[in-house]
Amino acid sequence: MGVLNRLVATLVLFTTSLLCEAECPIECYCDHGTITCSGNKILTRFPSEIFGGTNSPSLESALEENSHIFTRFELHDYNVYIVSKREFLSLISANKNVTELSLSRNSIVNIENDTFAGHELSHLKVLDLSDNKLNYFMGGEALKKLKVLDLSSNELQQVYGLSEMSTLETIDLRANRISYLEPTIFQVISFLNQ
User: Fold this and answer.
1) Number of folded domains in the chain?
2) Band (65; pLDDT cuts 50, 70, 90)
3) 159 forms bridges with which residues in the sheet?
4) What pTM did the predictor assign?
5) What is the CATH number of the domain that holds 129?
6) Element at 72 (helix H, strand E)
7) Range of the domain at 65
8) H-assigned helices in the chain
9) Does the pLDDT value for residue 51 go beyond 60?
10) Contact status, residue 166 vs residue 143, Cβ threshold 8 Å
């Protein structure tokens, strides 16, 4: 019985590995429920396949077809300075089972102001924007189900919209230059400490 269980587990891992390699952009790999893409500090755009590239299988379709496999999506070491609302929504709406999105170490200076307004991203629980170059962060009601927000090691001076994220359990603001926090953030922090 033990041999049969090992055989099944091996086949599942092998199938997942083949599927991921066949569907992911060349700079991406899959491991233990995570898709990780690295730009190696050379690429200035996230893989076009993520946004539905025309001549190759899109990562979005791979995520949709294999939603039970992937729960974490990481894009790191790109030189992407601005993330548009369209790009962000493409990243996170491709699969409702992706609960963790990491955009750390990408040199991001700006995320469009209305990115987290309107659309509810109720499946997103963890958002990691650490180790970028963000000057300010504008949260919003789209992240109202978020539990963990990592904004550490940026160049943040101002942070807004955190009070709309009532389910936050952890906010990491270390290693920034914050000069302004909206007054309601202290209500959120007080709530978190109860």
Assistant:
1) 1
2) low
3) 137, 181
4) 0.77
5) 3.80.10.10
6) strand 72-76
7) 2-192
8) 2-23, 59-65, 85-93, 185-192
9) no
10) no
